[in-house]
Specification:
This protein is α/β, with parallel strands linked by helices and about 170 residues long. It contains seven helices and seven strands.
Length: about 170
């Protein structure tokens, strides 16, 4: 089984994924893939490399094969830790870009977490700015990322393809 959780940055997707993983673990093995680990940095986070990685991960899951990739190290913007996705009963794909068209036919449940983009951006900045070297540059990159996400969502029709919409305005 595959679940995708998509929506604006700061909407609460990671929190929802964690809750679902805990719930699903009573019914079998679960693994959560975070899109942040798959992005290739700030330049083209939602482009073809992300799509290719998602297709490979989904195909491995469908074939009941493990899959290994190198997560992006956001401090160096270089390949970081190796992540191995084991064969599991339930795969959760979480993050901006997780619900894209290229994999939808294989996703059993598609969830959109709705939030006003400006509220999500504020949450991300409050949450992460203490962990970055240059908060001003981080905010600039996040604003650009929001623009890229808006274009991605418009092209992909992600919200309209969702089976469920969750209100992320409150804390999940």
């Amino acid at each position: 089984m595959i679940t995708s959780i998509d929506g604006w940055a700061g909407a609460g997707k990671t929190t929802l994924a964690s809750h679902l993983a805990q719930t699903f673990s009573d019914r079998g093995s679960v693994f959560v893939v975070h899109m942040d680990d798959l992005y290739q940095g700030w330049d083209d986070p939602l482009g073809e490399p992300l799509t290719d990685a998602l297709i490979s991960i989904v195909q491995a899951h469908l074939n009941k094969e493990s899959f290994t990739f190198r997560a992006l190290d956001w401090t160096t913007l270089a390949p970081g830790d190796e992540i191995s996705i084991p064969v599991v009963d339930h795969l959760i794909l979480e993050g901006v870009g997780a619900g894209q068209r290229a994999i939808r036919a294989h996703v059993d449940t598609k969830i959109w977490v709705e939030i006003e983009p400006v509220v999500g951006l504020r949450r991300v900045l409050e949450r992460d700015e203490k962990n970055v070297a240059d908060p001003h540059e981080f905010e600039k990159q996040m604003r650009r990322f929001q623009d890229l996400a808006a274009a991605h969502f418009a092209t992909e029709g992600t919200v309209f393809a969702a089976d469920f919409e969750v209100n992320g305005q409150g804390r999940l």
